[in-house]
Design brief:
Blueprint lengths: L7 E3 L4 H4 L6 E6 L33 H16 L1 H22 L2 E5 L8 H4 L2 H5 L4 E6 L13 E5 L7 H4 L2
Parallel strand pairs: 2-3, 3-4, 4-5
Antiparallel strand pairs: 1-2
C-alpha cells in the first residue's frame, strides 16, 4: 500500500474542492478529464456545455500537466478498471486516515469534473467506506430513480438539456 494519494486530490490542491474544505471536513476529490476530452465520455448528459466546459478551460485545467494527469486517470478507469479501483481504495484509506488524524470528517467528491454514476457502477465503495461523506453533482436525473446510499449526497445540476418538467419539481 502506498502512503501518498495517486488518484484523489486534496481540498488544499484543488480550487473547486478548497471551497468545501474546512468546517469539520477534510475534502478529497477525483478529477477526471471532462466530457470526451480523454477519448472516453465521462459526462453522458453533457450538452452545449461540452464546447465551453468551464471545468476544461479554466484555472489550472488549461495547463498541460493537469490535463495529462486527468487523461491518465480517465484512461486508467476505462482501460484497467481493476487497477484503478485498487488505487482508489488505497487513496480512500489514506484520505480517511488523514481526516482521522486531524479530527475531521472525511468528505469525497468522485465527480469533480465528470458525471459517473458511482452508486450504480461501484456500490461497494459506499459500504466499504461508510464513514466517508460522499457528495456529487449530476445532470443525470435518472440517478434519483434508484436507491442512493445514505452517505452519498447528490445534487441535481440544471442545464440547457434539463426537461422543463424536472425544473418545476
Amino acid at each position: 500500500m502506498t502512503t501518498r494519494l495517486e488518484l484523489l486530490s486534496t481540498g488544499d490542491s484543488n480550487t473547486k474542492l478548497r471551497k468545501s474544505n474546512g468546517k469539520g471536513f477534510l475534502v478529497f476529490g477525483l478529477s477526471l478529464r471532462p466530457a470526451k476530452g480523454s477519448g472516453y465520455n465521462v459526462c453522458s448528459m453533457s450538452g452545449k456545455c461540452e464546447q465551453a466546459c468551464v471545468l476544461e478551460y479554466a484555472g489550472r485545467s488549461v495547463t498541460a500537466p493537469v490535463r495529462a494527469a486527468r487523461d491518465r486517470k480517465t484512461k486508467l478507469y476505462f482501460e484497467n478498471r481493476t487497477q484503478f479501483m485498487e488505487m482508489l481504495v488505497n487513496d480512500l484509506t489514506i484520505a480517511q486516515r488523514q481526516a482521522d488524524r486531524k479530527g475531521l470528517n472525511c468528505a469525497v467528491r468522485l465527480n469533480v469534473a465528470s458525471d459517473i454514476p458511482w452508486e450504480i457502477n461501484h456500490p461497494e465503495l459506499f459500504t466499504q467506506f461508510d464513514r466517508i461523506t460522499w457528495y456529487d453533482y449530476t445532470k443525470i436525473y435518472k440517478r434519483f430513480d434508484r436507491t442512493i446510499p445514505n452517505n452519498y449526497h447528490i445534487t441535481y445540476s440544471y442545464s440547457e438539456t434539463t426537461d422543463p418538467t424536472i425544473a418545476s419539481k
